[in-house]
Amino acid sequence: MGTINSAFDIITGALEADQAALNVVANNVANANTPGYTNEVPDWQQNPPIYVSGVQNGDGVTETGSTSQRDRVLEERLDQQQQLASASGARLGALNTMQALFTPDSGSSSATAGDIGADITSFFNSFGSLEANPTDNALRQNVLSTASTLAGDLSNAAASLNAQRTALDQQAAGVASQVNSLTSNLAQLNLEIQSASPHSDAGVLEDQRQQDLSQLSQLIGINQVTTENNGLSITTTSGQLLVSEGQSFSLTTGVVNGVTNFFVGGTNVTAQLTSGGGELGGYLTARDIDIPNTLGSLDQLAYGISTQVNTLNNGGTDLAGDNGNAGDIFAQPTQVAGSAAAMSVVMTDPNHIAAAALGAGSGDNTNAIAMANLLNQTIVGGQTPTDAYSNFVTTLGSTVSQVQAANTAQNASVTQLQTQNDALSSVNLNDEASSLTLLERSYQAGSQVFAMLNTVMAAALNLGDQTAVS
Amino acid sequence: MRLTLLRPEQPELKELLVEASKALAVLDAERLEGLALCCQALARDLAPMSESQRDLLRQQARAAVDDMAVFARVLEATRANVQVMRRLRALRSERLEYGQWGMMEDGRGHD
What we know:
The complex is a heterodimer of chains A (470) and B (111).
Chain A: H1 4-30, E1 40-46, E2 50-52, E3 55-57, E4 61-68, H2 72-101, H3 116-132, H4 137-196, H5 204-219, E5 222-227, E6 231-236, E7 241-244, E8 247-248, E9 251-256, E10 259-264, E11 267-268, H6 270-274, H7 278-313, E12 316-317, H8 339-342, E13 356-357, H9 366-373, H10 385-424, H11 429-462
Antiparallel strand pairs in A: 1-4, 2-3, 5-6, 6-7, 7-8, 9-10, 10-11, 12-13
Helix pairs in contact in A: 2-4, 2-5, 2-7, 2-10, 3-4, 3-9, 3-10, 4-5, 4-7, 5-7, 7-10, 10-11
Chain B: H1 13-25, H2 29-44, H3 51-63, H4 65-103
């Protein structure tokens, strides 16, 4: 049976609920600039009805806590895009360093990798000069000098790439300890969240967990699996368990074939992490794919030139009268791999350059012509030396452009999703709707710009082109 | 911005594309709508061009190919985000409606 006191209880309860709600709002305001804080809204629970003289009266509400305005699906997508952006950003940094190595030298006399294209032409042209006067010592010396410049630039480029690979290896290894620190924190937070708030949003604790997930996403590619009682399991993108609710599994490192490899529970996951995302994915892609590909191209170039030039020199006659055994100009590589790093000039006496054909007199230039003609022969993987180098530089530039485009788009996506997430966290459902409207409006306007520019560019690129008329 | 060929107020294609990518990244709809008008004007002026203007536009188009690829990637990422946000919005609306129905009951079977 209710009394007048019950009615006062309703009023008091309402005031208390209002006060509790004001506390939630005050907490939101106080944390407006706290990184990772998610706004909260009060939860209301309807009270049991009160009967006064057998009549049911208003029952009022009680504030039972607060819920953070978060959306796990949106946060996960944001984390995924962050993983992609971090991976392409780390890879782009490495690619830019590599590309700078092959930028042509602007007038300095110092040898640089960027001059390799010109070095190749100068070296073979030096045989062309020798054709005119095969006994001239200065021209012979010039052949060895240009050979030395070419070998020096190629081996320096390979050394720089190997040094960059070592630096990337160290950066990648350093990521492992950061990952382990974060996964350990996440496991601890899981325990606290499951214990404190198994059936509802855990507020600040979930904010901390989300912040750690964001940081982890910058480092490594991950998948998140929500488990019972507000728990969370985290795996690498290829499925290796990093966190299972309250337990974390360390990412360990070990050196295999001279480079750092990564293990989870004894399984080597280096290849999976390479394609997985995050900074680690970017570093490993540059270390294990981009640099080896570049080195491979340089090795082929060095191997092709060294082998063919040595073969021709040993097939002619030099000034000292050596027939078919004049010796090597370059150190003879035993295999393609490592040829660029090991490239050097071993010939010290220019008289051993075999300008004459086998058995011909010292004034003959047949073999010098043959060596000069190597410039236009397909001696490097089915391409001429200059084409091989030119194609290699073009391919590298194209890779840089592609990764740059992907990185720009991924960073844009992160910015857009962050805007949407902020709008979601702004409590008001209308703000969320207006944020989605802005996203749609921007997309539509962007589509219009794209369609029109596509038409303009297609028309511009066809302007003035000759068209066959039958 | 460097001014260019057809009308003095029009920027180069490359600059247009860079600006459009930036605006789309930060969801600056007004800027994008302004750029769309700019592109309309550019498309309108295509036909009555002199030979020198054609050469200039062709050069600009070639120089802007990479930026067009970047803009295409940003647009594609935006499209994916629009789809995700629409789905989330629909899910949240359904949850809200379900929650309202739930609140009409007092937990003891009384509507």
